[in-house]
Design a protein that fits this description.
elongated; two-stranded antiparallel sheet
Amino acid sequence: VSALIFQSLKKSLADSNNKITKNYDFGYAGFKEFCQHISSLTQSNRYLSHIILMRLPWEAGAYLRHAISRRKRPDLDVKNILEETTEILNLSYIAKRYFSKDRTWLYQRLNRSVVNGKPSAFTEAELQKLSDSLNEISHIIQQTSIKLTH
């Protein structure tokens, strides 16, 4: 690549970078718009689109992390996993406190109920939140137990 072409690409990249960062919210929706923008650049300037894509790999990672966290997990039988604890835990409290939902929302996912024609299931993010809530509750119970013996 000659120096003149390189300087032209560098200027185009700087202009596009400014335009892109001002016009796109780099979340889930913003990344889709960004890809469309890159696609349009590809038709006119392949070098520029390649450079931009190489400079912003973290956006692809953010997009994938978001997509994975929203993925449903119908293969996981959460009700069976929680079997021994459902009588001990107040699932209504967990739904309200940790998910800001009512207990029916939690029970639908536990029972894999069909809601609006689709089987309900926990997403990866919801499973992580449920796991975190159980850890927090176990910590509270452990601290209470310690207080009783001291």
